[in-house]
Write a structure and sequence with these properties.
The chain is mainly beta. The protein contains four helices and 38 strands. Strand 20 and strand 21 form a beta hairpin.
């Protein structure tokens, strides 16, 4: 971390006025600084972890957790996951970086139908109570068969204590400790998620291993199903509906067209998998997210399908390359981009969606070793086969299409209700001579270079360029984040200066070298040059000056202010 200290020099020696002509023929005037006049931190030191945790977080992949579920309640984040397979633990955080182990919030009763292989918790607030849904192993005493089944526990707060539900369900049946409350006899069912629609109707979504069906249909395939619920502890299995199948745009299609969902090299030819469903409703549309492939593979990634009703028909968007892949490695094993994601983030999947104020966040797991499963045992030991909690934003574009800028491994702004600042660049006016200037504040960065995905970066020729950012009124500015190109050959390693006006300027903002893999000629996507001011400045205009000896590109510019 570089602390730029104020140096008092007479203004006539320190400051000069400069201008740059843009393609519209108008001059951009700004103050030229020889040194910084305000203190700031640029976090260019690869080993520095002392960033402002009230403003930023970073996916350092330290918190052991698979299949994470995250909620935001009373100004605190709570996370649960596959951690200790005999109980469910609660972790809490104020900042998405430091997680506190609150304790075991759910432990099965002594006489429970299952006390092992407890996976994939899903926490929902329904009618004044918190319901913890989970997957666990069930041994059927009738035929001694073992199948995953679904359970539910109830509590008064997010950190528990949760107790298994016992009592009557909506069908007037007794729910006891000895039998799964949602028993799907003879069938493996897992990764449940409960969604409440605007009218109060509940739905449950889950993955079914169809190998346990008796009709040989789709043998060796895990698919996503859904059903209505009569109440929080009763599934109406008469409404059971097949929703998603691996590789198929619609379950009624005869041919596969979504290739990435069957990339997993770990599965034999007769095995494919969709699991970890999660529902979000936005602007009258139902977006069902899920994960495809095997969790041990780099290709484990989150996709989505969309429908006009909770139980379908669901369609996976497929008009452009990897259009419905929300988050993950955008290439299969052996390809150019897959090899470059090794060391960045891999195995990203099983996401839950957490609403934080008016913003949405994805909580998902990634391979803790930032590489393929089991790699780097000399460095990670047994944790080379661990998964870690990771968090990124879920956005919707002007057409309602969901997308993420993840996975990320760089400083990321905290939600505005947490930090008190938001990205005010989204409503600002940009001026410069760059090509496709509108991409600088479209809230989008590309996740890969050298793929068929459409590039949404602003291009600049080599030399000096300035970017003017104007607001409709005076704003209080805390930080500027300039996101690098995802193309290694077009990155910048420093910013000459930023002029905030009123003789407030910073110089020589550096890029963190941890975000560059020079051996692979790869730069981590959505990585920024950070200028975090020690004290806020007030201005209605910012000018950024960048000089590079080769052509360069920028993915996005964020201004954190209020």
């Amino acid at each position: 971390m570089k602390n730029k200290k104020f140096i008092y020099i007479l203004p006539c020696l320190l400051l000069t006025m400069s201008s740059c002509s843009n393609k519209k023929g108008k001059d951009i005037t700004y103050t030229k600084y020889e040194t910084s006049t305000v203190e700031f931190n640029d976090f260019s030191d690869p080993n520095d972890k002392n960033f402002d945790k009230s403003l930023y977080y970073r996916n350092d992949l330290n918190q052991d957790m698979g299949d994470p579920m995250m909620v935001y309640h009373n100004n605190k984040f709570y996370a649960y996951g596959t951690y200790d397979t005999t109980k469910i633990w609660c972790f809490s955080s104020d900042n998405l970086t430091d997680w506190t182990k609150e304790g075991a919030c759910f432990t099965p009763e002594i006489d429970s139908w299952s006390k092992r292989n407890i996976w994939a918790p899903d926490l929902q607030y329904i009618n004044g109570k918190w319901y913890m849904y989970y997957t666990a192993e069930y041994i059927d005493k009738d035929d001694n068969s073992s199948h995953c089944q679904l359970g539910v526990a109830v509590g008064d707060s997010p950190n528990g204590e949760f107790k298994q539900y016992v009592g009557k369900n909506a069908d007037n049946q007794n729910i006891t400790l000895e039998t799964p409350p949602f028993l799907f006899k003879g069938v493996t069912i897992l990764d449940q998620h409960v969604f409440q629609d605007d009218d109060g109707q509940l739905y449950m979504y889950f993955s079914i291993d169809t190998r346990t069906f008796k009709d040989d249909r789709n043998k060796g395939v895990q698919e996503i199903y859904g059903a209505k619920m009569k109440d929080p502890v009763t599934v109406d299995f008469s409404t059971l509906t097949r929703l998603l199948a691996p590789g198929y745009k619609k379950v009624t299609d005869e041919k596969r067209t979504i290739e990435w969902e069957t990339w997993s090299p770990s599965f034999a030819n007769d095995m494919e998998c969709l699991e970890g469903p999660y529902m979000i409703k936005k602007n009258g549309k139902y977006y069902l997210t899920y994960v495809a492939n095997s969790y041990v593979d780099t290709e484990y990634a989150v996709g989505y399908a969309v429908s006009d009703s909770p139980l379908g028909e669901y369609i996976k968007p497929d008009s452009t390359y990897l259009e419905n892949l929300l988050l993950g490695v955008p290439g299969q094993t052996g390809t150019y981009i897959n090899t470059r994601y090794l060391g960045f983030q891999t195995g990203t999947g099983h996401a839950s969606i957490c609403k934080v104020g008016d913003e949405y966040m994805f909580a998902y797991h990634a391979h803790m070793n930032r590489d393929k499963w089991g790699a780097k045992e000399d460095e990670y030991g047994e944790k080379s086969k661990y998964r870690a909690l990771s968090v990124d934003y879920l956005y919707f574009d002007k057409d309602g299409k969901p997308y993420t800028n993840g996975p990320t491994y760089s400083l990321t702004r905290l939600p505005s209700v947490v930090s008190g600042y938001k990205n005010i660049a989204l409503d600002a006016t940009f001026k410069s001579d760059g090509l496709n200037l509108e991409y600088l504040n479209d809230n989008y960065t590309n996740r890969a270079y050298n793929t068929d995905e459409v590039s949404k970066e602003t291009e600049f020729t080599k030399g000096k360029h300035v970017i003017e950012i104007k607001f409709d009124s005076v704003k209080e500015i805390k930080a500027v984040n300039v996101f690098n190109s995802c193309n290694y050959k077009k990155i910048i390693k420093y910013i000459n200066q930023i002029d905030f006006g009123n003789n407030n300027g910073v110089t020589n903002i550096l890029f963190n070298s941890n975000y560059i893999n020079n051996d692979m000629n790869f730069v981590f996507p959505h990585a920024s040059l950070v200028c975090d001011l020690n004290a806020t400045v007030k201005t209605d205009r910012i000018v950024i000056e960048i000089e590079n000896n080769i052509d360069f590109a920028l993915g996005e510019i964020e201004i954190l202010g209020r």
